[in-house]
Amino acid sequence: MSDVARLAGVSIKTVSRVVNDEPGVHPDTAERVLAAIEQLGFRRNLGARNLRRGMSTGTIGLVLEDVGNPFYSVLTRAVEEVARQFGRQVLTGSSAEDPARERELALEFCSRRVDGLIVVPAGMQHGYLVPEMRAGTPVVFVDRPAGDVVADTVLVDNLGGTAAMVDHLAGHGHSRIGFLGDAPDIFTASERLRGFREGCARAGIRYDESLVVMGPHAEPNVTTEVTRLLAAGATALIAGNNRITVMVLRALSTVPQRPALAGFDDFELADLLDPPVTVLAYDIAGMGRAAAELLFARMEGDTSPPRRIVLPAHIIARGSGEVRP
């Protein structure tokens, strides 16, 4: 504000009065101050002002993996709907699976004095949030648990859902099932791989490492791996998330005899494809609502022990080649 005061030829107190809409400033003086603010690009720090006054900033932070992913779009909308009910706005950023970026975003939101924080973890180290949590900023983790702090968490049953899908395909005569998962250091990917192994054991199918492909994936290597899996005798494929399912579908577009295909996460138009795609679905919006409701409960004084909510995943069987001819 000192720069604004010098340019406008007034005191810092006068600038403060103009910025905070206080009375007692002559209109011509206020106009000079506003012109200086515009020229210098000065922006008042609402978070700091509200902190001095002991007020809420009216915002919460939401750190996602990728806002461009339809999964996170649905989750964000659900969080926004709950926040709106409590008169809050949502600040959102994407970590791109980079733990350093996750930390940067989370701490940036905290520096802006958000009233609470929802995080989709990109890494397994969250001790950096402990000082913020001790200072009174509630934090809820969603889709994946925190690595080294105890906090409210909302997850989906990744292991149980994938195991059920293996059992579903085995029940239709498939014993050579391929699995394409995301990077194994991602919690959801590792849990779905565990579910695949457990599903094989439950169904009495030999777990074959050669039928497992873990990411990260790009379309060319998915095409290569799908070709290899089919050559190895796979009659059914399970894709570990919605983006992998779409890449597998593209890889299968030129395959004369398409294998059975099932994917974790439902996705738009999956039921309109020919054949439609069988999926493991769960309530993504419900996940966002649960996380936001936990957060606002903490913001309103709930001091009960941290909660862990696990949402079920259920099979939507659409006949995408499950039954072997």
Structure description:
With 325 residues, the protein is α/β, with parallel strands linked by helices. The chain folds into 3 domains: 43 residues, 434 Repressor (Amino-terminal Domain), CATH 1.10.260; 127 residues, 3-Layer(aba) Sandwich (Rossmann fold), CATH 3.40.50.2300; 124 residues, 3-Layer(aba) Sandwich (Rossmann fold). It is 43% helix and 16% strand. The chain is built from 12 helices and 12 strands. The strands form 2 sheets. It has a 6-stranded parallel beta sheet with strand order 2-1-3-4-5-11, with helices on both faces. The chain has a 6-stranded mixed beta sheet with strand order 7-6-8-9-10-12, with helices on both faces. α1 crosses α3, α8 runs parallel beside α9 and α10 crosses α11. The radius of gyration is 25 Å and the shape is elongated. The N and C termini lie far apart (76 Å). The relative contact order is 0.12. InterPro entries: HTH_LacI, LacI/GalR-like_sensor, Lambda_DNA-bd_dom_sf, Peripla_BP_I.
Topology (SSEs and partners):
Blueprint (H helix, E strand, L loop, with lengths): L1 H7 L3 H8 L7 H14 L5 H8 L5 E6 L5 H16 L3 E6 L4 H13 L5 E3 L10 H5 L4 E4 L9 E5 L1 H13 L6 E5 L5 H17 L8 E3 L4 H13 L4 E4 L2 H11 L7 E5 L13 E4 L2 H16 L8 E4 L2 E3 L9
Parallel strand pairs: 1-2, 1-3, 3-4, 4-5, 5-11, 6-7, 6-8, 8-9, 9-10
Antiparallel strand pairs: 10-12
Helix pairs in contact: 1-3, 5-12, 8-9, 10-11
